[in-house]
Design brief:
heterodimer, A: alpha/beta, D-Maltodextrin-Binding Protein, domain 2, 4-stranded mixed sheet, 15 helices, about 5% strand, elongated, B: alpha/beta, Rossmann fold, Alpha-Beta Plaits, 6-stranded mixed sheet, 4-stranded antiparallel sheet, about 35% helix
């Protein structure tokens, strides 16, 4: 590997890409269009508080009022009361087209005083997943705080939990890492499928093989280009996500491995698909078969947690899932231990596909 | 005289198909050597083996003293190659292409001078995909010369070009020879080989059927002269009935002459026949005539396949 030749060839590869407007459109402009559309359509669900209908069967006891005040102060939900007289809350919610409700049982205050376990009834609508999550998270958080207080612990933890919890479930916070993953997938995949099949047909690899540039040097230059594109796309997504939609995402150090290893993984898969195909047309079909399920089922546009249970294992079988999960863990949740698992999976996949692709990809004729 | 290329018992199989069948030849340094044959004869397979981009099945090959498949790294910097159907990156310009190659080879090349040499100065800054077929080939030639190679491979460099562009490429090939470079030229244009080559090898169905200079091959395999008569078609039947080998083309009749006496006999026969005729002329066999005869004789089994010492120049 001669890095001088990689540096020499890199601008030629970049020029070929930049001078084709379609490539740049899909690499940089298209994800911006997606974030503008999806962000605008779904931004309301992320920024407003979730309405929570509460039925207090404990007769406004001080303990229950205090609990509801704590719940309201989380900022995640806006509490509105209904009287015990409306009867079954679940039926009431359904009739009034409400999606979340909480029942504070009779005897709440006395049970708390006696340290008797209390069961709070939380009703959520599974079809509005992020709202359900917010409500459950908020109630659980306040309950945890109450438990800690009763056990003699400090209640400081309570608002902290809820603060994080309310941010996690903002849709735009999912969308930003999802669309960065989309960029990391789409430009290397589509481009490499096209390059490896059409360059083979037009004998451009043979033309390069007549120069001292080696196969690995060519591949390194191409990978570096897609890593650069992935970084550019990441900055664009962060900019639009934060400025226009107030996304709670940050570019942490743990984000960087995905921006580097992700393009290596998808360059390898694209190269493999283009190399094993006999014509550019069949390569395009194979590329689409690989790319499209990954594009939609890896949590790009919607969190995998909202998928029906039978679809979740499918998502977990797709390499892009680990890129997006890792980016979410790094940029939104700041969950280092989960990030490391994702990095490991992406790294192993990248190595496996890189080995397969370079084994299949030959410049010289047979 | 030193040799640039030595090939011995070279064979190449694609599955059960034998594309190159035990050929032998050598190319001398400084000559234009043309590898001539119809489509599918094995020309490109052979040249790609010599260029080191395709492995051989058996046989020995030495190019500038190197085994091209094993020692490609050393060979690459000393040869220039214009592949058949030369393609380049659509959104790079000729000037960028020459500069890229020069940097990859680690040589200093004056891009303007090189592009002027192949008459591409006017198009130096235009994208490759806006150039004509002839201009594509000229860029191919320019790129093949970036590293100042001592041996150039040109695989059908004028296929598909108009007559003016062909002549322009021929001029470049003549210049390469004048500069002392060795040129290995594959072509299926017989006039191109006859005009440019010092020596020729004719390949058909994977076997070499003749080698030598164009004149030697014509002298060895051609018939002495042909007499061409413009006149009534019935002349052909009359001459054929006397045992002459006759062919017809529009209103002309062409008779192969084995000796000078044959010419007189033909003219006497025509004169005595009372048939109408307007003019006559004679001409020698061209390489094309010889080629067609050789390929025909190979197919009817009357020509032994060569690589045999007596058929080599």
């Amino acid at each position: 590997m001669n890095f001088r030749r990689v540096a020499t060839y890199f601008p030629a590869y970049a020029k070929g890409y930049v001078r084709n407007p379609l490539g740049l459109f899909f690499a940089l402009i298209f994800p911006v269009i997606l974030i503008l559309i999806f962000g605008a359509v779904f931004s309301n669900s992320g920024n407003s508080q979730v309405p929570l209908t509460v039925q207090n069967l404990d007769g406004n006891s001080p303990a229950s009022v205090e609990f509801l005040a704590a719940l309201n102060s989380t900022g995640a939900v806006s509490v509105s009361m209904v009287s015990p007289g409306v009867g079954n809350l679940s039926t009431y919610l359904a009739h009034n087209d409400l999606s979340a409700g909480l029942v504070i049982p009779a005897g709440f205050a006395s049970d708390l005083a006696n340290r008797t376990p209390v069961r709070l009834l939380v009703f959520t609508n599974p079809s509005s997943g992020s709202e359900a999550g917010i409500v459950e998270g908020a109630v659980q958080g306040v309950a945890n705080g109450e438990n800690l207080r009763l056990a003699g612990g400090t209640a400081v933890v309570t608002p902290l939990n809820l603060n994080v919890g309310s941010q996690i479930y903002s849709y735009i916070d999912y969308l930003v890492p999802g669309l960065i993953g989309f960029s990391v997938l789409v430009s290397p995949m589509f481009s490499m499928v096209n390059v490896s099949s059409t360059w083979k047909r037009d004998k451009l690899f043979r033309q390069l093989s007549l120069t001292p540039l080696s196969r690995s040097e060519w591949l390194t230059a191409a990978v570096l280009w897609y890593i650069l594109l992935a970084f550019l796309s990441t900055f664009l997504m962060l900019f639009f996500g934060r400025v226009l939609f107030g996304a709670h995402v940050t570019l942490t150090l743990l984000t960087i491995p995905f921006i580097i290893v992700g393009p290596i993984l998808f360059v390898s898969i694209g190269l493999l698909a283009g190399t094993v195909s006999s014509t550019p047309e069949s390569a395009a079909v194979l590329g689409n078969i690989i790319t499209f399920p990954m594009m939609f089922l890896s949590g790009t546009f919607f969190p995998v947690s909202l998928f029906p249970a039978w679809l979740v294992p499918v998502a977990h079988a797709l390499p892009l899932f680990y890129v997006i999960d890792g980016l979410s863990n790094a940029m939104v949740f700041n969950n280092a231990s989960a990030v490391f698992v994702d990095i490991l999976v992406v790294l192993v996949l990248a190595i496996v596909f890189a080995v397969l692709a370079t084994h299949a990809f030959s410049w010289r004729e047979k | 005289m030193t040799t640039s290329i030595e090939v011995s018992k070279l064979a190449k199989d694609y599955g059960s198909v034998r594309a190159v069948d035990g050929i032998e030849f050598e190319v001398r340094s400084g000559e234009v050597f043309s590898f001539l044959g119809p489509n599918g004869a094995g020309k490109t397979t052979t040249v790609e083996i010599l260029e080191g981009i395709r492995p051989r099945s058996s046989g020995e090959v030495r190019v500038l003293g190197f085994d091209p498949w094993i020692q490609i790294e050393k060979l690459r910097t000393r040869i220039g190659v214009i592949p058949q159907d030369f393609h380049f990156f659509p959104k790079l310009t000729p000037r960028e292409a020459v500069r890229l190659y020069a940097k990859l080879f680690g040589v200093k090349t004056d891009a303007d001078e090189l592009l002027a040499h192949v008459e591409l100065t006017d198009k130096a800054d235009d994208y490759y995909d806006t150039l004509s077929g002839g201009q594509h080939q000229k860029l191919g030639v320019a790129l093949a010369l970036v590293n100042n190679p001592e041996l150039c491979f040109l695989d059908e460099p004028t296929t598909g070009l108009d007559p003016r562009a062909r002549r322009s490429i021929w001029d470049v090939i003549r210049t390469l020879r004048e500069q002392g470079r060795t040129v290995f030229l594959t072509t299926h244009y017989l006039d191109e080989a006859q005009k440019l080559a010092d020596r020729i090898a004719i390949i058909n169905k994977g076997r070499i059927i003749a080698t030598g200079s164009p004149d030697e091959i014509i002298a060895r395999y051609g018939r002495a002269e042909r007499l061409r008569l413009v006149g009534e078609p019935a002349l052909a039947d009359r001459l054929a009935s006397l045992g002459f080998h006759v062919s017809r083309e529009n209103d002309a009749v062409e008779v192969e002459l084995a000796s000078k006496a044959d010419a007189l006999k033909v003219l006497e026969t025509v004169s005595a026949s009372g048939l109408r005729w307007e003019s006559f002329s004679t001409r020698s066999d061209t390489l094309e005539d010889v080629f067609i005869q050789l390929v025909g004789r190979l197919e009817d089994g009357s020509l032994p396949t060569s690589s045999t010492p007596e058929s080599r120049a």
